[in-house]
Specification:
With 161 residues, the protein is α+β, with helices and mostly antiparallel strands. The chain contains 6 helices and 6 strands. The strands form 2 sheets. The chain has a 4-stranded antiparallel sheet with strand order 1-4-3-2, with no helix packed on it. A two-stranded antiparallel ribbon has the order 5-6. It is flat, with a radius of gyration of 23 Å.
Length: 161
């Protein structure tokens, strides 16, 4: 995406999600998606032209949009492990709406790149594997004993750098 000054910039803005109705100042507790209209409703706010693939996008088995919204609720989802977890947003800001718009734009770009990513993976999978013997012929050495696998001591690391 060379030459883009923002993730919201695109050659064809018609393909990008659009922020149609402001969320307001109240922290949204719900996020909903209508696949027929391709609209996300975040509290009172609304984004249109959101593809089902963007809505369903997952990383590590977690839905990205649900996770993003979950951490920005008045009572955020997730494990509480620190007093800092008690510091939460008290009102919705335009910056949060901008951030959500940017998240949708990034996910839209990622979805659009999936065919190229799949082709690249196919090309990689069709190439010949490099064997240990090939690497050793190029001077790469491998651990032989457990002692070889131990991390370097701090003193040794200082002399290396």
């Amino acid at each position: 995406m060379e030459g883009l000054s923002s993730v919201l910039d695109a050659k064809d803005m018609r393909s990008m999600p659009q922020y149609d109705i402001p969320v307001g100042v109240e922290i949204p507790e719900t996020v909903e998606y209508d696949e027929t209209t391709r609209i996300i409703k975040l509290g009172k706010g609304q984004w249109s032209n959101v593809s089902p693939a963007v809505w369903d996008y997952t990383v590590g088995g977690r839905n990205v949009i649900d996770s993003w919204v979950g951490y920005r609720r008045a009572k955020p989802k997730g494990r509480k492990s620190s007093p800092l977890d008690q510091i939460n947003e008290v009102s919705w800001t335009p910056e949060l709406s901008q951030e959500f718009s940017e998240l949708l734009a990034v996910l839209t770009h990622l979805v659009s790149m999936e065919p190229q990513q799949a082709e690249l993976l196919e090309q990689i999978m069709r190439t010949e594997l490099i064997t240990n013997a090939d690497l050793q012929a190029q001077g790469v050495s491998f651990s032989v004993t457990n002692a070889d696998r131990k991390p370097r001591l701090q003193e040794e690391a200082k002399t290396i750098f």
